[in-house]
User: Fold these one by one.
Assistant:
Number 1:
Amino acid sequence: MSAVKPISESNIVSFFHDKNIFLTGGTGFVGKCLIEKLLRSCPGIKGIYVLVRQQKGLTPAERTEKLCASRLFDTIRATNSDFTKIIHPIEGDLRSPNFGLSTHDEEMLIEKCHIVFHSAATVRFDEPLKTALEINLLGVKKMVHLCSKMRSLQSFVHVSTAYSNCNRQCIDEIIYDNPFEPEKLLSAAEWMDEDMLDLITDRLLNKFPNTYAFTKGLAETYLASHAKHLPLAIIRPSIIGSTWREPIPGFVDNYMGPSGVLAAVSC
């Protein structure tokens, strides 16, 4: 029986060594935890480029600095105080054409990026359908377009949800056919205003409980037909709670959803 490889020899660590990563949703809870885990477990990463928009008077650089100051990174900070040097904010917005990337940033990503994690999404269950389509579906379309131009892309990971097919009783690890064509819904969303879409939302959702699950399912359908040429992986996390043990037990950056319920019950 062969011995377990130490972390320094693992295939995962070897794969990420000297790689450049492009990440969306890096300021959200899942994105923060992913960045921390990559930095802590794969110290040979060359660079992590995070799409960040200006928000509440803070520049992308200031928001990234605030992100790195989180206590989530205390474990890394204790052993490597220079970890922030490989985290690079890329100014952009998921809802802007081509993510609002500058020519310089786009060319840099096309030339240097090896791995893409697309984690950004609107997770509001009551989001108007027009907004949910623009972020959760059109955002995926833009990412496929960008990834298709990357010269050294080795992995494109799309973060979906366990509820992307919640209209079904049994869910397998496959991408299901959708009664709606994603492109046609995007075209409709371009010329229909929010009020018009709201009038037909319930009919479109059918057995889906909300616009979040509906649009995440549409995104998977789009990827199945338009990302066949890419090294694609789709992951479907379930309900997001606090960290279990690492890097610190019980870390959470907001009290929405189950985290808020658990916090209230424990008081």
Number 2:
Amino acid sequence: KLWKRLPSVAGYEQIFKLLDTPDPQEPYYLRDKALLEVLYATGARASEVVNLKIRDVNIKVGYVRCFGKGSKERIVPLGTVAGQAIQQYLDNLRPALEKPKSPENLFLTRTGRAMDRIDLWRIVKRHALRAGMPKTMTVHTLRHCFATHLLSGGVDLRSLQEMLGHADIRTTQIYTHVDNDRLRKIHKKFHPRP
């Protein structure tokens, strides 16, 4: 049963390649770059990212306010790179996307409406394919990568639970089974018989 539940995870290099795929020559480069950076920096769900309002982002302090399942609010740290990408998008592209009746959502489409989950999915898919990632790469895969990479770096499970917005720690514990390379190295290092 465990093997069916384990999420697929891309390595650091694959993710960094994905984050670098938006092309500065493309018209929506700044939006796409900010979007990908926010997804990986926060581990937010697709619905949380498309519902982010400008007021939910504090670049100076370095956090994003997400509203998760059941409108439950949580504060998630925002990395410097993601913060800079958002600032560039806000300064240079978002004003051009705005229309008189555009919502206060952070991420807008080319027509000035709030981005929805399908728009987000298409953008992630397009850049994932460009980065040479498997077709199975989704928005949710970035969330899994966020969690697994933090665990690999040594974050404690309780902090990860808070960042992911999981009500139950057992949901977060799934990620402890994902990093097989790390487990293999630990086993090799500490087991008396190689």
